[in-house]
Amino acid sequence: MILVLLGGCLLALVPALIIGALVIDKIRDQLSVDYARTQTQLIAQRVGARIAERRQLARQLAAQPATSAWLSAENPASANAFVADATRLANDFDADMVFAYRIADRHFYLLDSSPSADLISPLYQANPLDTEDAWLFGLLDTSTDQRIQVIFDAHLERQMIWISVPVFHLGRPVGEVGSGIELPGFIEEMLRERRPGITPMLIDPQGNLRAHPDASLVADRINPGYFDFSRNLYSLVTPEQRGLLSSAIIEARRYPGSQVVRALNLQSRDQLISVQSLPELNWLMVSAVAPQELSDADAPWFAYLSLATLSILAMLLIMLGWLADRLLLNPLRLLTASAQSIARGEFRTNAPLKRRDELGQLSQAFAQMAERIRNHTSDLERTVSERTQALEHANEEMRRAHRTLDESIGYARLLQSAILPARLEQRVNGAVLWRPRDRVGGDFYLLHEEPGGCLVGIIDCAGHGVPGAMMTMLARGLLDRAILLAGGADPASVLTETDRLVRLLLDERRGLATEMDVALLWLDANGRSARFAGAKLDLFLECDGQVIRHRGGRRPLGHRRRGEYANVELSFPSKARCYMTSDGLLDQAGGEDSFGFGVNRFIALLEQASALPLPQSLSHCAGAIDDYRAGLAQRDDITLLVIESGDFSPR
Length: 651
Description:
The chain has helices at about 1-65, 65-70, 75-90, 135-140, 185-190, 240-255, 290-345, 360-420, 425-430, 465-485, 490-505, 585, 600-610, 615-630; strands at about 95-100, 105-110, 125, 145-155, 160-170, 170-180, 200-205, 210, 260-265, 270-280, 285-290, 430-435, 445-450, 455-460, 515-525, 530-535, 540-545, 545-550, 570, 575-580, 590, 595, 640-645. The protein has about 650 residues and is α+β, with helices and mostly antiparallel strands.
């Protein structure tokens, strides 16, 4: 086993090393690109953050009331207030230089970190004809609210970054204020923490080097449009690659905030150049990364780590192989031989191990298992044979019972279908949705025709399945008797007479559920009027897309307390539809919370279906109920009867 493990390791080692080297090279290249971008972005964010901080300082100083008051009319009180505001803001923003310029007398004031700084006394008076003072006049001549300028200040004899904001008093410019940053110290702070293998640089749009670790390469003039090829980034790359460098600079200036990476030969070394625009200074940040130097810096640690890892793995492999063979593999061979004997049916074979550890316990379990298997095998075979015969007999009995029950239910459905009106749709301009919960149910509908019109209705008897179907047979007989006695034109009298017959026939059988919900509608032959009466079922009348609910009596037929039933006279416009439904539709559970369908949702459904022809209207309602149910079981029998106004004379 040890030889196999060692051989497998050796076979896997060579391709693993090759693949690992390729992967490491790819990772190193990608990490170099990401590192160059990260370093460029980091320094650019430092520059942007410092400039934004000083810009905020200038804006807050310009917004102080004392600033506009002092620059518009000099007086000691406003001057002292301005000095206090400027000192406070300089301390808050950790700024070492704040300035102010008054238009009226062209005085320039400066407050810096030197002990002799005095913001009350002007440092000098600006001359509009002097090019060295032109930066003070440029902002007020434009429509911008701020300006950032990088110049060599001849008065201070220092390279400066000036961030200035105009100040207005009563709508007219009175001066400008801002903050100054010494360029050399600012660049040194921004380019700190340089690692081996990376060279940060700052260049202007012409490519002149404004900051570089090698000070001899930095251009000493910062005038706009100045070009010094000897101290230019273009001079550090080969002539063939200057076009690539130029395209990177153009792309970076076109898309501020993005880092453009190019592979160039810089100062005779293959390096990755990352360029990002610094719109605050109109300069560009450049990071040159030498991937090989980065790798060389980490190479000793990688080699030591790899060697230590391989040594530990080899020692662990040898020790694990020896322990596995002595403590696990050899005992498992013996146990395997015993298991093979048991598999061949030799249940008297004993496991040979006599140990107190887990393998010894496993050996004893094998011996006990063999004995129990031998004892149970014969019993199991006999028991399986007996139970198989019993199961086959029970299955045959169940099949016969199920066949008999299925035939009985089918016959009951045939009988129940016989009491339902035939061709209802053709005889009264109607349609019906009849869905028993089981194959038969306690819901049915009726149609009784007379010379003056016809009586239609739905009946919901107590019970489901076969008991409910039997109740429908009884209910149909009682209704026919009541119609014969009371006449179809008086639905309320039909309900009262049916209730009397139910009580007369079933009053002594109060232990049974004999109640019936009924809705009856008499339709005159002229098709313009109707008469409705209900027992716990309502009529929904739809006219011009609006649905009106006419309630029936509060108690069903056969209730322990007698109900009172009254007729509701109806008149139809040119077109109307009458809907009657059993409570199985309104109580059907569904939706997200498994609530009942409900009356409000049913009325909204009828209003949606009002524009459809009668058959499509009923199909639309059936589809909406199925969608709402969404796979839940049907809770009760469902019957929905719809009649459309028209000629109801017998046909």
